[in-house]
Amino acid sequence: MRNIATKLIQAVTGLALATSITVSAAADILIIDQERVQREAAAFKDFDLQTAKIRDAIIALRQRTSPDGFWDQTAVQFQQRMVAELDDLEKRKSIIGNDAYETERQTKEATFQTEGQQMRQQLQNETNQLRQLELYFDNLRREAQTQVERARSPLLREILKERGAEIIMRKSLALETASGLDVTTEFIERLDDSLPTVTLTLLQQAADTGEATDEVPVSPEGQ
C-alpha cells in the first residue's frame, strides 16, 4: 500500500511539474494573426484605398485576355461570321457570275484579314498593359511592405519586452493556442498609431507628371 501511495504522489508531482514547464514555455511565445492584421490595420487599408483603381484595371484586363474571356469570344464570333459570309458568297456564285464572285471574295478576304490583324493587335496591346500594371502594382506593394516592416519590428520588440516573451509567431503556424497569448489587437493598435498611412512615391510621381497610371484604356465591348 505504501508503494502505491508513493507512486501516486510521484505521478501527481510529475504531472504538476510537466504542466508548469508547459505553461512556462507557452508564456515565452506570443501569437499574431497576420491575416487579421492585413485586413484591419490602417496601413493596409490605406494601401488598398490608394491602389483600388489599379487593382480594378488589372482584374478587368485579366478577364478580357483570359481563356474564354472577351477576346476569345470575339475571335470565335469573328470566325463564325467570316465562314457564314464566305459560304453565302459561294452559294451566290452561280447567280452573280465568276467576275463579280472573285471581286467580292477578294474584297471580303482583305476586309477579314485587316479586321483579324486589328483584333490580334488589340489583344497584344491589352496583354502588354496587363503586364505593365501587374509589375507596377508589385512595385507599389513592395514599397508599402517595406514601410510596414520598418514600423513593425520595433513594435514587436516592445511587446516581447513588456510581456517577458521570447518569440512571436504567426497564428497560422500554431495548431492550438492558450488564451492570453494572442497579441493581434494590441499590435494593430500600435501599428495604427505608428503607421496610419503608407507613402507610395510611384503614385505621387505619376500624379505629378499627369500620368493616368490607374486608368487603362481598353477596347469597347463588341469591337
Topology (elements, then pairings):
Layout: H1 2-27, E1 29-32, H2 34-40, H3 42-50, H4 52-65, H5 70-91, H6 93-96, H7 98-163, E2 167-170, H8 184-194, H9 201-209
Parallel strand pairs: 1-2
Helix pairs in contact: 2-3, 2-8, 4-7, 5-7, 7-8
State the main characteristics.
9 helices; elongated; two-stranded parallel sheet; mainly alpha; 223 residues
User: How would you sum up the major sheet?
Assistant: 2 strands, parallel
Low-confidence stretches: 4-26, 216-223
The helix-strand sequence is HEHHHHHHEHH
Q: Strand share of the residues?
A: under 5%
Spatial order of strands in the largest sheet: 1-2
What is the number of helical segments per DSSP (H or I, 4+ residues)? 9
Please tell me how large the radius of gyration is: 33 Å
Tell me the structural class.
mainly alpha
Average pLDDT taken over every residue: 85
Terminal residue distance = 95 Å
Give the % helix: over 70%
**Overall 3D form:** elongated
Question: Tally of extended strands?
Answer: 2
Number of domains: 1
